[in-house]
Amino acid sequence: MPFEKGDFLLVEYTVRVKETGNIVDTTDANIAKQEKIYDEARVYGPTLIVLGKGWVNQFVEEEVMKLNEGEEKVIEVPPEKAYGDRDPGKVKVYSLREFTKKGYEVKIGDIVETDAGRGVVKSISGGRVVVDFNHPLAGKVLAYKVKVVRKIADTKEKLLHLAIRHLNIPGEELKVEYDEASKKVTVSLPGKYISRRDLPYAKVSFATDALELFKDSLNEIVFQEVIARKTEESKQS
């Protein structure tokens, strides 16, 4: 059965540049390790998308809505529906002196900041530096291999996966309690994450989306950082 806007889906995906096979992103930890893009700070595995929220490419989302639970599909996204075509006007030439007088020793592949924004150094020759301000994926056809693992119906589970997505903390380390009568959710997380600099912003992001997505069933959000005394057994393990 096709899905609708507002549905909560758990999906797995791997995105590659069609022409080269170069990887762009993946939810699969093993693939990330094989492709040498593994990020220890990231939570891998099926990830939550809410249809209509714009969390994935619009063209991909429209195709996902036609799938069924458990179905997998490779969706090819043309440049005009991804990062656009390459614009020759976004390739600019600068004098090498402009960078050296600021103390920059630029080399090919460096990302530099100029009055035109952030760009990539493509070549250096004859005292001139060519900088490309096109998005690195501009002009590329992207191949999204997407699998809809399942649709989530339970409110508590929806909130759990929303917390995993925003807080970037594994589900087994989170505890989410939802009280339907009081319309209150309590999110408990290990104290080891307290010092994480981005945590306050992640909490605000979660709260903003939760209150928007559960307008009729959520009025209050409580966060708890739990610091437990280590037992002798846990110290030895």
UniProtKB/TrEMBL annotation:
Q: Which organism is it from?
A: Thermogladius calderae
Class of enzymatic activity (EC top level): isomerase
List the Gene Ontology MF annotations in alphabetical order. Answer: peptidyl-prolyl cis-trans isomerase activity
Stretches assigned to the PPIase FKBP-type domain: 6-112
Q: Which InterPro entries match?
A: FKBP26_IF, PPIase_dom_sf, PPIase_FKBP_dom, SlpA/SlyD-like_ins_sf
Q: Which UniProt keywords apply?
A: Chaperone, Cytoplasm, Isomerase, Rotamase
Cytoplasm as UniProt keyword: yes
Predominant cellular place of this UniProt entry's protein = cytoplasm
Record localization:
Cytoplasm
Query: This chain belongs to which protein, by name?
Result: Peptidyl-prolyl cis-trans isomerase
Looking up PROSITE patterns in the UniProt record yields: FKBP_PPIASE
